[in-house]
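RECORD TYPE: inverse folding
INPUT: structure tokens
STRUCTURE:
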């Protein structure tokens, strides 16, 4: 929150348009409603991907920053409601994630994705999901939906901004809102309306030591 307030102070002094404010989104693998990569509220256990993982929850918090402080609209006094969501993600590291299906948790009535089944498009290492509604819901933390997956190895999964994937030129991570956003299109976008470091994916696996415990003991005999 400190860097958001500093940006707003600088903007006010310079007399230019308001800077991007802050809120955040995250993945939850272990079902505790948090993300272990966010030091401010890591929850319990780890959100690392392994072959035992069969579902990945996606959360959007339109009302708070990662540290829990309140978030506000960056373009007006309108609320950071949510009436649509899009999540664009990429798998990397050692292993794979197969995205089988998506379950919407918001009750949104129509798909926003170009291609696939209209709600989810997956190809290569990337996946894009999105749904919308004509009715806005109040600012809050929402589990917008769940990926049902098959995981091999220990990969990582992270959010991408607009232009980050070859799936489609329009694929992005964003949510629709009564807040106009910096482009005044009522769409709050990762990488412009809120920063990339406010999107928490899954953590990388802990590096394996090159020496076994037996070999280390031999060194000290």
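DESIGNED SEQUENCE:
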């Amino acid at each position: 929150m400190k860097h958001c307030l500093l940006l707003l102070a600088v903007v006010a002094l310079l007399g230019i348009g308001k800077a991007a404010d802050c809120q955040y989104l995250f993945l939850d693998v272990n079902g505790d409603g948090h993300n272990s990569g966010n030091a401010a509220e890591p929850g319990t256990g780890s959100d690392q991907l392994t072959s035992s993982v069969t579902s990945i929850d996606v959360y959007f918090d339109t009302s708070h920053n990662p540290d829990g402080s309140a978030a506000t609209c960056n373009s007006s006094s309108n609320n950071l409601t949510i009436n649509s969501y899009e999540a664009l993600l990429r798998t990397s590291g050692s292993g794979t994630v197969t995205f089988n299906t998506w379950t919407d948790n918001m009750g949104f009535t129509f798909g926003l994705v170009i291609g696939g089944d209209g709600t989810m498009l997956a190809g290569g290492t990337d996946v894009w999901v999105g749904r919308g509604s004509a009715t806005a819901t109040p600012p809050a933390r929402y589990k917008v939906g769940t990926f049902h997956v098959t995981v091999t190895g220990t990969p990582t999964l992270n959010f991408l901004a607009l232009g980050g994937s070859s799936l489609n030129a329009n694929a992005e991570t964003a949510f629709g809102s009564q807040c106009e956003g910096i482009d005044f299109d009522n769409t709050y976008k990762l990488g412009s309306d809120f920063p990339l470091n406010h999107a928490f994916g899954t953590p990388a696996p802990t590096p394996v030591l090159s020496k076994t415990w037996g070999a280390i003991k031999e060194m000290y005999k």
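NOTES: The two ends are 53 Å apart (CA to CA).
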